[in-house]
Amino acid sequence: MDGAANGYPAQGADPAAAGVNPNAAAPAGDDWRANLLPEGRARIVNKILAILEKHLPVTAPEGLSELRRIAIQYEERMYAICTSQTDYLRKISLKMLPLESQAKANPHGRGTLHSKCGSTSKGEKGNKLRCHFCKRGGHFKKDCRRREIWFKKKGIAYDPTH
Q1: Angle, helix 85-105 to helix 61-81, in steps of 10 degrees
Q2: Residue spans of beta strands (DSSP E) within 31-157
Q3: How far is Cα 79 from Cα 71, in angstroms, rounded to an integer?
Q4: Per residue in 11-23, pLDDT tens?
Q5: What is the Cβ-side half-sphere exposure of residue 96, based on CA atoms within 13 angstroms?
Q6: Which pairs count as long-range contacts for 46-53, CB under 8 Å and 24+ apart, including other chains?
Q7: Per-residue pLDDT reduced to its tens digit, 73-118
Q8: Residues 148-157: b if buried by 16+ CB within 10 A, e if exposed
Q9: How far apart are CA 140 and CA 36, in angstroms?
Q10: Distance between CA atoms of residues 140 and 134, nearest Å
Q11: Is 64 helix (H, G, I), strand (E, B) or coil?
């Protein structure tokens, strides 16, 4: 079939020579979503899921299904609000890039963007606390037993406030 007959330039032809501006916006009747296949969307969801799994390691099947639900929900939101396929891919990439780079920088999954090492409350966040003396979680430096032992070994009067 001739390329010009279906409204597209022939393969290998220069788009500018055919009178098509590659930087022009898509025609009003042509929605970019119609050109995005469901398989492509599924690949994007799987990529988002892989990044989330690296960033938030889960062991239970319920956790994995929750991450999948989050990935699908995020992809659907971007699919609905974006104005073009380029905008769609750019927004997803910009959101996933910090997560992906942090997962590469910290491959053991310790510490997330949401963890607060300097938290002052012990309630539900108790497992995210970190002592700045022994670097272990669950307590503050002023409550650290290792710090108290260290002071006693050095012969220094122990004052938990300093």
Answers
A1: 150
A2: none
A3: 12
A4: 444 444 444 444 4
A5: 22
A6: 46/71, 47/96, 48/74, 48/75, 48/92, 48/96, 51/96, 51/99, 51/100, 51/103, 52/99
A7: 999 999 989 988 888 889 888 888 887 777 666 665 544 444 444 4
A8: eeeeeeeeee
A9: 51
A10: 10
A11: helix
Domain ranges of the chain: 24-105, 117-162
Domain 24-105: give its CATH code. 1.10.246.20
The total number of residues shown for the chain amounts to 162
For residue 28, give both structure tokens: 């009003």
For the chain, the first-to-last Cα distance in angstroms comes to: 82
Model confidence, pTM = 0.47
What are the angstrom distances between the C-alpha of 148 and each of 5, 23, 58, 126, 142? 84, 67, 36, 21, 9
The token duo for 89 is 């891919």
- In three-state secondary structure terms, 30 is coil
Question: For residue 108, what are the CA distances in angstroms to 102, 131, 135?
Answer: 11, 19, 16
Among the listed residues 144, 132, 148, the one whose alpha carbon sits nearest the alpha carbon of residue 158: 148
Which among 136, 143, 120, 117 is positioned nearest to 128, based on CA atoms?
A: 117
